[in-house]
Amino acid sequence: MRPPIVISTWNHGLPANRKALEVLAAPTSSALDAVEAGARVVELDCPDMTVGLGSRPDRDGFVTLDAAVMTGDGRAGCVAFVQGVEHPVSLARLVMERTPHVLLVGDGAQQFARECGIEVAPPKLTPQADKEWHAWLKEKNYQPKVNIENHDTISILALDAHGVMAAASTTSGLAYKMHGRVGDSPIIGAGIFVDAPVGGAICTGLGETVLRTLGAHLAVEAMRAGATPQEACELAIARIIEKNPNPQNYQVGMLALDFKGRTGAYAVQKGFTYALQAELKPAASKF
Predict the structure, then answer these.
(1) Confidence (pTM)
(2) Between β-strands 65-71 and 76-82, what pairing exists: parallel, antiparallel or unpaired?
(3) Rounded percentage of the chain residues whose pLDDT exceeds 70
(4) Domain containing 69 — which CATH number?
């Protein structure tokens, strides 16, 4: 058996990876257990306010959360536009394991959470999020920015010692988005995709650009056609730039992992960092 491999997005990938690798040290654990546990760490404590209940709200003052999990055998579970759930990544896993569906949204996802014994808290902003939202309301200038303080979605890929791969993603989406907006993170093939025996890919950044191209699926299909994980990331980012004008105004970062244990990382803009095992690395970029 080979040592497990974990790769995840941004600086907050480091604590996520630490937890995931800790989980994978147990002989009975799985890649799915690892990515869920790693994502939960960031959901519970994200100083950048982009993941979990402490995130910045939409323009109407509500924190809405998206999450997804997927395994190499094609199983997947997702939740979107969820409020009041501390760990949406775990709810996404329950969608996969306890329902015949892949995606539950909004009130329906919250109802399912209650049926599973998960507390759904009433809408409430943290003092810092409330302060920033009221400051934003003065001008209502909605303009996504590139690499704000090095943060965004936490997406994570793991290959366990048994050769099984899984991915997870969880986010609050863009700050001050329109109420009801959902990005790429909870959409299979866009924010995450895993397919054995090829590999997996995960994305972070401006979700609309990834949704238009199904970025993660695109990278995995490139690996299926013979590309290395690095080449696959570069090909997928090139397609995203081709289909989404003005790349100077947005960021997308992509990570890939194949079943040989090779990894890839690439971004539209400089500034995308990722965690590989216990090391933080800068990704190469187009610009």
Answers:
(1) 0.95
(2) antiparallel
(3) 97
(4) 3.60.20.30
